[in-house]
Design brief:
Blueprint: H1 8-24, H2 36-39, H3 44-47, H4 49-72, H5 74-94, H6 98-110, H7 114-125, H8 128-159, H9 164-183, H10 197-215, H11 217-220, H12 225-246, H13 255-258, H14 261-289, H15 302-318, H16 320-330, H17 332-352, H18 357-384, H19 391-419, E1 421-426, E2 429-434, H20 436-458, H21 479-482
Antiparallel strand pairs: 1-2
Helix pairs in contact: 1-7, 1-8, 1-9, 4-5, 4-6, 4-7, 4-10, 4-19, 5-6, 5-7, 5-9, 7-8, 7-19, 8-15, 8-16, 8-18, 10-12, 14-15, 14-17, 14-18, 14-19, 14-20, 15-18, 16-17, 16-18, 17-18, 17-20, 18-19, 19-20
Length: 483
């Protein structure tokens, strides 16, 4: 086993700060999304890619970053991911055109590889009694960053120019970079191998085609030729990619490992829990901001809606120690089932708590607690079922599964919310907004996804932690790097 870091808590804080900084990019442009066509002199359809391209880049980069971390060393990839975040933020801060903004947002998305690599590294640098809570906290940053990003960004936009959003992001990334270099020990955990460039290109192509089809389905229509064409093309490319990977000596993703039942079922549960997390992130802010004249709208400003959502995000982080204790006493499988059950219960609660902002915020807190517990358990299940030298790649694939769930939820919720609408007067014009029944249907879908996650988790077989076996290469820690 590798020696633990000399200052493990400082290393955990640095890694969690990096996870928060990376996940903030997912929601930081929402406050200005409606203004982007004017700000970037383009159409609303084109500026929608400012959000989409970050999600696509993040989904593609997580398994690739995980594999590179296994090959080159995890701290090196963390530094590279943080540099990408700095570069992307600066490009966006200087952007005056859509093309430049898309380049910057893609670079920010590539930084999402930080989170799975950080989770994999924590098992190596913290003492055993801190491992569970540290992994839980790091995993929770996927949801926490998105939750606190909305009110933070709304406030920044209100007090300054929209470019300030990205200058703040760049400054935070620089602080994180310093923390990674100074506080996170450099573990000699590299396992040199040939990088599967063909596999990376195939995975990226297949995922982009598939996810574009999903993410645009509500706008293009599920039955449109473009939607079906992109989804079908993506599945075909991914099918060919899988065949090639199985015949590759050193593949980007070890598919034989990912189809082992503990890993496969955990990743399927990750899709379901990812859907559950994203559903409330899409539905609750809209419901909070609709006019009270509708009878079910809550009349909150964007900043107020974000502030009502913030406690839920913080709960994910606060429940990291609770998740760790549950995993210690009951096991990661039972903890995942508990998290998904709480998540589903939160959506059922939301059906009856739509009457005021504080009630809806309370339901969102319950939902977020379920997400936090579930997200904490999944990396542990994956890490226990994979050898240490494949930890980065394994956690990266699990993070990709969560991303697939959030993308699928976004597409489904978008379709539901646009399929049942009512007319409302906004200023001197009439707009169509989702009906109360559409919001209720979204809550039902979120609950169903969570309960599906419970059912899948119940079938995960028990596995002996593979890290108990001797590792092919024993990492060493440079104490000097963490001093």
């Amino acid at each position: 086993m590798p020696a633990p870091a000399s200052r493990p808590l400082a290393a955990v804080v640095a890694l969690c700060a990096g996870g928060l900084a990376a996940s903030l990019t997912q929601t930081m442009v929402i406050p200005i999304q409606g203004e982007l066509p004017r700000l970037l002199d383009s159409t609303a359809a084109n500026t929608a890619w400012v959000v989409t391209i970050t999600l696509l880049a993040g989904a593609v980069t997580m398994p690739v970053s995980g594999r590179l971390a296994d090959m080159l060393g995890k701290q090196r990839i963390l530094v590279a991911s943080t540099l990408l975040l700095v570069a992307g933020s600066v490009v966006c801060a200087l952007a005056e055109s859509l093309a430049t903004m898309l380049v910057g947002r893609a670079l920010q998305g590539l930084a999402m590889g930080f989170i799975p690599v950080g989770i994999a590294l924590l098992r190596e640098i913290v003492p055993p009694h801190l491992a569970g809570s540290s992994v839980a906290a790091m995993s929770a940053t996927l949801g926490v960053g998105g939750a606190i990003g909305l009110p933070l960004s709304a406030w920044i936009v209100q007090v300054g120019d929209w470019h300030l959003l990205f200058w703040v992001s760049a400054a935070v990334a620089l602080v994180v970079l310093a923390g990674i270099v100074l506080l996170v020990p450099h573990v000699h955990d590299a396992h040199p191998a040939r990088f599967d460039a063909v596999g990376a290109l195939g995975l990226a192509t297949g995922l982009v085609l598939f996810l574009v089809g999903l993410s645009k389905a509500s706008a293009w229509g599920w039955g449109s030729g473009r939607t079906l064409g992109f989804i079908a093309a993506g599945l075909v490319v991914l099918g060919v990619w899988a065949v090639v990977e199985l015949r590759t000596a050193e593949p980007l993703v070890d598919l034989r490992s990912t189809v082992r039942l503990p890993v496969l079922l955990t990743n399927l549960a990750a899709v379901a829990v990812g859907m559950g997390m994203m559903a409330q992130a899409i539905v609750v802010p809209q419901l909070l901001q609709l006019p009270e004249a509708l009878g079910y709208g809550l009349g909150q400003s964007l900043l107020a809606a974000g502030l009502w959502m913030a406690p839920g995000g913080l709960m994910m982080l606060f429940f990291a120690p609770v998740s760790s204790r549950l995993m210690t006493s009951l096991g990661a499988k039972a903890t995942l089932m508990i998290g998904a059950s709480v998540l589903g219960g939160g959506y059922v609660l939301a059906l009856f708590l739509m009457g005021s902002p504080w009630q809806l915020a309370a339901a969102a807190v319950v939902i977020s607690i379920g997400v936090g517990i579930g997200y904490a358990a999944m990396p542990s299940l994956v890490l226990d079922a994979n050898p240490a030298h494949e930890a980065g790649s394994a956690v990266g694939v699990n993070a990709l599964a969560r991303s697939l769930g959030t993308t699928l939820a976004s597409a489904l919720m978008g379709t539901v919310l646009t399929s049942s609408t009512v007319a409302v007067g906004i200023g001197d014009r009439v707009a169509r907004v989702p009906s109360e029944g559409a919001f209720q249907a979204c809550f039902v879908i979120g609950a169903a996804a969570a309960l599906l996650g419970v059912a899948i988790a119940a079938t995960i077989p028990r596995t002996r932690r593979t890290s108990d076996a001797p590792a092919p290469l024993t990492p060493r820690v440079e104490v000097r790097a963490s001093a």
